[in-house]
């Protein structure tokens, strides 16, 4: 992967600049990004539909489907961490008008959380990815692999693991380089605050690619509870997901599983190490860490 401007040892943008708007600030990645930026001394506006409190931030209400919330969220902001609405297969419909308004209000840097499975110009948030470099001189698109938190948080997989000891996917024996949300947030914080924006498409992975059967084996070894992977067809996975989300979105996610069966996610990158200076967390270490924090409450659910 081509090197990008700015490294873990580079200078960061001055904290005296405008605030960073973090969309989805109560979510799996957004919450971690907000907390990391606060710890680094940056002013953070934490946006969510309910404007819930995030320690050390300015909580603001933001709803992609309510343009009346845009102006308040953008007040005093010069950088934005973008998380697409999770209930739409065509997020560009609402995101692009918001980004045009953000640019007009003085936002100079935008970092988009996308997906390793969706290239520029691809479906869903891929349309926003394609448009971003034309909207902002300073930009980055983070394309993380599937979240480790999907197996330990409040995702469908995590619930079926806890309730039944089963992971159901249409991914077959395909391997995925699952990544910890903490590592994604570390990359995002660097992209938002580095002296120079990456200006690049960054695929973010964990250190190894695992099949879901191997994931189940690690969970079994670390937790001491038997976990197995049960392979579904594309149609079975689509219908299972459609019980809790719109059919079009369920079909897209099931399609990503099917692509994984064909090896679409069977690769690793050095993005985390190159931008943050530390190696990404392994899945075994993630599970052990999640077990230690169970008493402190369940993690927010992941979307990928």
Distance from first to last alpha carbon: 23 Å
> How would a crystallographer describe the biggest sheet?
7 strands, parallel
- Structural class designation: alpha/beta
- Corresponding CATH architecture of the largest domain: 3-Layer(aba) Sandwich
Write down the CATH topology of the largest domain: Rossmann fold
Order of helices and strands: EHEEHEHEHEHEEHEEHEHHHH
Number of helices: 11
Shape: globular
Strand order of the largest sheet: 3-2-1-4-5-6-9
Number of strands: 11
| Oligomeric state of this protein | single chain
Spans where pLDDT lies below 50 across 5 or more residues: 1-16, 295-303
Give the amount of beta strand, in percent: 15-25%
Using only CA atoms, what is the Rg?
Answer: 19 Å
Let me know the average pLDDT: 90
Pfam family, one: NAD_binding_10
Domain NAD(P)-binding: 24-119
Protein name: NAD-dependent epimerase/dehydratase family protein
InterPro entries: Ergot_Alk_Oxidoreductase, NAD(P)-bd_dom, NAD(P)-bd_dom_sf
Describe the structure.
- Residues 24-119 form the NAD(P)-binding domain.
- This protein is of the alpha/beta class and 304 residues long.
- The chain folds into 2 domains: 19-144, Rossmann fold (3-Layer(aba) Sandwich); 146-180 and 206-266 and 281-291, Alpha-Beta Complex (UDP-galactose 4-epimerase, domain 1).
- The protein contains 11 helices and 11 strands.
- It has helices at residues 30-39, 70-74, 92-104, 126-135, 156-164, 181-193, 212-223, 234-242, 247-261, 271-276, 283-292; strands at residues 19-23, 44-48, 58-61, 77-83, 109-113, 138-144, 166-169, 175-176, 201-204, 210-211, 228-231.
- Strands 3-2-1-4-5-6-9 form a 7-stranded parallel sheet, sandwiched between helices. A two-stranded parallel sheet has the order 7-11. Strands 8-10 form a two-stranded antiparallel ribbon.
- Helix 3 links the parallel strand 4 and strand 5 (109-113).
- Helix 1 crosses helix 6 (181-193), helix 7 (212-223) packs across helix 11 (283-292) and helix 8 runs antiparallel to helix 9.
- The relative contact order is 0.16.
């Amino acid at each position: 992967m081509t090197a990008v401007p700015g490294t873990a040892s580079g200078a960061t943008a001055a904290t005296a600049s405008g605030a960073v708007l973090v969309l989805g600030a109560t979510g799996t990645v957004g919450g971690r990004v907000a907390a990391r930026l606060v710890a680094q001394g940056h002013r953070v506006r934490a946006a969510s539909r309910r404007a819930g409190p995030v320690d050390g931030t300015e909580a603001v209400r933001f709803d992609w489907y309510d343009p009346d919330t845009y102006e308040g969220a953008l007040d005093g902001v010069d950088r934005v961490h973008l998380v697409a609405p999770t209930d739409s297969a065509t997020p560009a419909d609402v995101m692009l008008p918001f980004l045009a308004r953000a640019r007009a209000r003085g936002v100079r840097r935008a970092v988009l959380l996308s997906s390793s499975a969706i290239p520029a110009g691809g479906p869903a948030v891929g349309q926003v990815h394609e448009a971003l470099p034309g909207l902002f001189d300073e930009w980055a698109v983070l394309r993380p692999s599937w979240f480790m938190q999907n197996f330990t948080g409040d995702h469908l997989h995590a619930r079926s693991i806890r309730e039944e000891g089963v992971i159901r996917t249409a991914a077959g024996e395909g391997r995925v380089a699952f990544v910890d949300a903490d590592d994604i947030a570390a990359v995002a914080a660097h992209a938002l605050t580095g002296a120079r924006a990456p200006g690049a498409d960054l695929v973010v992975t964990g250190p190894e690619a695992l099949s879901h059967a191997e994931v189940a084996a690690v969970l079994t070894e670390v937790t001491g509870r038997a976990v197995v992977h049960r392979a579904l067809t594309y149609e079975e996975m689509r219908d299972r997901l459609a019980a809790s989300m719109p059919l079009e979105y369920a079909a897209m996610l099931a399609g990503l599983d099917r692509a994984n069966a064909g090896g679409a996610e069977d690769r690793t990158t050095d993005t985390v190490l190159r931008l943050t200076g530390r190696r990404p967390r392994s899945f075994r270490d993630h599970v052990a860490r999640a077990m230690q924090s169970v008493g402190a409450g369940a993690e927010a659910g992941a979307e990928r």
